[in-house]
Design a protein that fits this description.
The chain is built from 18 helices and six strands. It is an alpha+beta fold.
């Protein structure tokens, strides 16, 4: 009888956990759907749209020349777009869903280290951060990577507790999915190694890691031949590390709050000798710093590559503050939410993703005249303009620097010819869509490319500038 009562009680607890986890995921989904279509697509997102429209043939042709590491994501988005199209809202919805799954998985993981209320606080801390919203509402693979890393970490905990082969297989699969979208996600294995220490045979762990390491290594090996994939990444320096902390946390003060939580966890572990239980969290917290150090020797330091560390900062903060008092945890959450509010509004605005191709295209569509021409300083800018031009066409404009009327599948649209007086000969009015500091089109003061076309004016649209010239 007692055993039956205990079984029913355990089943009731499990049912409550399932319902609560689903509720957390639904709240995260709704939260990140708010104004999901408001920010203009930025240059990387319009590349996603372009690849989805090209289909498998175009994706594989491009992979032979550039962006091979993103091929699995492009194929995923092509399959999605066949059913749901390539609107901003549609292309961003998979990322919104993936981030909601990550928040729910973090809640389940946090319940192993704190109370249910503490786990809810951890999930809420992660959810309210602007970086979470920014990449949940972006048509790129980063939300997928975050979800895969959090899920793999949760599955590792389950596998260590249950000792069942099925959970180890699930853990291996989650790691492999993360590696498929980014081989950088495999750095989480450093933390998992600490978690596994003396808890499972290294042979078991090696078998579980092999699929992910094989997949990630294969993609990294072939992708390493495409130097342009990382050629744009500047060297790591102190300012970029400071900027990275603000990008992950939303503000310098929020970053300091989370750093204080990490330090507090380290101090508490030293005093309590709980390295085996919590040491892996410090390894995850150190991954952005380790990538920054590596960035002094190779072009690898881009903060979104380690976005998957963010949920673990939230977990650390929840663990530390709930050990002080639940009021301290709630106060920490309130402080982070208030500090994040201005940036939350910003990332959901028209300029939230930096490039505002939508208003740039609308300006030209409203003011262009027959006979006008348009130039772009590189292919992704042309692709961004074309994405919105396909939806709200302007009058036909000559594109004198376009190398070909046919789409070049080896790049993101078409390359541009050199900008010379001959190339712009006979043009009375010229629209120039570019980004600050671009070296690809010669702009010298009031003229352009050595012609007698004179600058009428320039308007900024986020990171995109639109200049009008006329003779």
């Amino acid at each position: 009888m007692a055993a039956s009562v205990e079984l029913e009680s355990r089943q009731a607890r499990e049912n409550r956990t399932v319902l609560l986890t689903a509720a957390v995921g639904i709240v995260a989904l709704i939260f990140n759907l708010i104004r999901v279509g408001r920010p203009s697509m930025w240059r990387d997102e319009v590349v996603t749209a372009l690849m989805a429209e090209r289909g498998p043939k175009g994706i594989f042709v491009l992979a032979g020349h550039m962006d091979l590491v993103h091929t699995p994501y492009y194929l995923t988005m092509w399959a999605w777009s066949v059913a749901f199209g390539t609107s901003e809202w549609s292309l961003r919805l998979p990322s919104v869903a993936a981030m909601a799954v990550a928040v729910a998985a973090l809640f389940l993981l946090a319940r192993r280290y704190t109370t249910t209320l503490g786990a809810l606080i951890a999930a809420a801390l992660f959810l309210v951060l602007p970086s979470t919203t920014r990449y949940a509402q972006e048509a790129r693979s980063y939300a997928f990577i975050v979800a895969a890393v959090v899920i793999s970490t949760l599955l590792l905990h389950v596998a260590l507790e249950s000792r069942r082969r099925g959970w180890w297989i699930a853990y291996a699969a989650a790691l492999a999915v993360g590696a498929l979208f980014s081989f950088m996600s495999l750095t989480i294995i450093l933390a998992h190694l600490v978690l596994l220490w003396r808890r499972a045979p290294l042979r078991t762990a090696s078998f579980a890691w092999f699929p992910g390491v094989f997949v990630g290594g294969l993609i990294a090996w072939f992708g390493s031949g495409q130097a342009q994939a990382v050629g744009w990444i500047p060297p790591a320096d102190w300012k970029r590390l400071q900027d990275a902390s603000m990008q992950l946390a939303g503000s310098q003060l929020t970053a300091m709050l989370f750093l204080a939580a990490v330090v507090a966890l380290a101090v508490w572990m030293i005093g309590s000798h709980r390295w085996q239980d919590f040491g892996w969290l410090l390894i995850v917290a150190a991954l952005p710093l380790l990538l920054w150090i590596a960035g002094h020797f190779a072009s690898v330091f881009v903060v979104r590559y380690v976005l998957f560390a963010v949920p673990f900062y939230a977990l650390i903060a929840a663990v530390v503050t709930t050990r002080v008092h639940i009021v301290a945890a709630l106060a920490f959450l309130l402080a982070v939410a208030l500090l994040s509010y201005p940036e939350q509004r910003e990332v959901r605005s028209q300029l939230g993703h930096g490039d505002d191709f939508r208003t740039a295209q609308a300006l030209i569509a409203g003011q262009a005249r027959p006979g006008d021409a348009i130039i772009f300083d590189f292919t992704a800018i042309r692709t961004g303009f074309d994405y919105y031009n396909d939806r709200t066409p302007t009058i036909p404009l000559a594109d004198p620097l376009n190398v070909s009327a046919e789409e070049d599948l080896t790049t993101f649209g078409n390359l541009s010819k050199p900008c010379t007086p001959d190339a712009l000969g006979g043009i009375r009015r010229l629209w120039d869509v570019h980004v600050p500091g671009s070296p690809l089109v010669a702009r010298t003061g009031q003229s352009i490319c050595g012609t007698d076309l004179r600058l009428v004016g320039t308007t900024p649209h986020g990171s995109v500038l639109v200049s009008l010239y006329q003779r």
